[in-house]
Structures are given as structure tokens and as C-alpha cells.
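re: that chain from earlier
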Amino acid sequence: MGPIRRTRLRPAAVTATALTAALAVALSACSGGAPAATRTAGGTGQGKDRPATVTVTPHGGKPRAGEPVRVTAKGGTLTKVTVTGPGGGVLAGTLSADRRTWTSDRNVVPGASYTVRAATRTPGGTVGGADAGFTTAAAGKVNKVDWRPGDSSTVGVAQPISLVFDNPVADKAAVERQLEVTTSNGTEGSWGWLKDYSGRDRVDWRPREYWRPGTKVTLNARLNGTDSGPGGGWFVRDYKAGFTVGARQVVKVDLDRKRLTLQRDGRTVRTIPVSGGTPGPNTGSWRGTAVVLAKEGTVRMNSETVGLGKAYDEMVEDSIRLTWSGMYAHAAPWNAAFFGRANRSHGCVGMSTADADWLYSRVRVGDPFEIRGAEAKGTVAPNNGFGDWNLDWDRWREKSALD
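^ sequence. v structure.
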């Protein structure tokens, strides 16, 4: 593909009105909920040459969203089509090679009114025109999206684009087709569908490799008018956001050596002693690549919220969240005797308050923590935070609904 790579992120149907132009007759527009009027302009054709017949689809009293507007001419060609939608916006479209059919580039959206104006010409030169209007049925159920990262943010090199949906997405292919990612340097990437840690449907766009520092990224989710499928409802708005990738910072955690190293642009900035989770299925730390989800500062950590009974209840400083299941990097002054010597935490990566202050001030959301060690309890799952990186490229691409 070219220097800019695009990956694809639609509305409710309308009533189609068949419009037959009558020679030398002009019909006035109807009011209220009456059918749209047709209008014919006089032509320069000879003899009994009649204006072309124009048909607009979809049609019906209150058509559903999710279809394009299609205008067809019979007995002539279309010279111009204008479709005006919600807020006065003009719906772009494409005219067929024989100029007999015009199709909108996007589908119509739920609960919206549209007007159609078409101009025609016959082979004999007679010009005509037709006007139509329709209003689509409102969405019975609406689906919404929560996305990361935030608009205009600067993120680390491991940050995926992530969309989490309020309602189930049964038609994942239809949704994915409306998702477009544009990068400033042709970054290769793919969408992958997951069940979020919250239990909701989620789709992430992950580069093949970590982002290149300085990359500018735009997400254009043209979802308005897209049907999620059974039980999910319609999307009734589009979403657009952009972000920039910051410096290449990678945090490497070696649980065997009990060391944490911050690297920037491939160079070691500092190595500090740490203590990871006590070996075991409940208290061990995760291995693999975790991504900084948030810098939460002072957090009350209560063991009862993660199924560990009354093991601890602490106000913890400099808390950097790495997984949704509760693994953090943070200050742990009560564990000072074990820094650099033994893994004796309840799953987090702890360090001195001074070291935690230093690390907290330098890492950003989206920075990867690459964690290794024999005493880990397992690998971070793709849906546990942004564990997307723990799948190789081929396995990640298999999660797309389109590839």
C-alpha cells in the first residue's frame, strides 16, 4: 500500500419514492407527511420525447437505516443528483458509468430526514427533474463506544487503538468496515476482536511492531447508521480522534534478577531493584508485555477486591496500572528488605518510594513493560489491559473479522 495505510471502522433506511415525470406538468411540494413531490422542467427534445422517469430507493413509510440512497433514471440519464441529510449536510455519491444510477457513498442513518433532487436528460435532449423526501425510522436501541487513547494525546510506542462497545456486536465485519486508521508513515497494523475484561465486545488496532516515535495517527470511525446485529442496536454517531506517538520508552522487568530497567531509544536510563509477586498462582506477577493503562497516583489497594481475603489494605503511592486484574508498578516501602533480593509482593512490582517517584515521572500511558522470569504465574492475556502484544502477528491478524 502507499505511504498512508488505511484500515476500515454505518445508518437506518429510508422510504424510496418512485417519481414519474409528466411532460409539461409541475407538481407542488406536499406538506406534512404527504409523499414528496415530483418536478419536471421543460426540455428541448423533439416530437413526443418524454422526460426520464426517476426512482429513489429505499422506500416505504418509515424505512430502516443501513442502506445507501440509490437514484435511478429510466428513459434517460442523470445529469446531477443532490441528497441533503441531517443538519443540511450533503451526502456524497457515485454516478455509474452509463449515468443511469447514482449511489450514495454512505448509508442513511436512523431517525433522520433526507431530500433528494435529481436532474435528467433524454437521448432526444429533453431535460427533467424530480424532488423527493423521506424520513428514516428511529433506532429502537442505540450502541455506544468508549475508546482509547484520548483525542490529541501523546502515547507510548505500545499503545493500541481500542474501542469497547456498550452492547454486543454480532455483525463484527459490518462494524470493522467502518473503522479507518490513517498514519503519517504507512504503519502496518490490523484490527483484532476481543472480549474485554469487563465482558463487553472490544476491537483493538495494533501495529505489527511497536509504533515509530513521532507517528501521527487518526481514527475515523464512520459508525453512524451501522447495525451492530441482533441485540446490539444501531450506532447513531461517528467518532474521530487523533494522537501522536512519543519517545520510544521500554520498561524491562526481570523477575529472576529482581531488576527494573527503563530504556529510552534503546539506551539504558536507569536500573532499579524491585520485588515482584511471591511465586504462586494467586500472588505471582504476570509475565509478557503489559502496557501502561493509567498513571493513577495514590490508590487504595485492598486485597479483598482481588480475591485475596484480608492480606492487605494500603494507600499506595506512585501507582502505575498495568492490567485490569490489578497488577501495578508502585512504591512499596514496607517491602524494602526484598528489593533486588526476592519476589515477595502480592503480584505487583514494588520498589522504593524514591525510585517509584522517579519512574512515575517518566513513563507515559502506552509505554510497554516487558516482564520475564521463571517465578511468574503466567502470561498477560490479550484482554487483560492491552496484552495484545502477547500474540504473534499471524495470530493477531486472525482476530480480524475481515482478514
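Residues 141-245 form a domain with the Immunoglobulin-like fold (CATH 2.60.40.3710).
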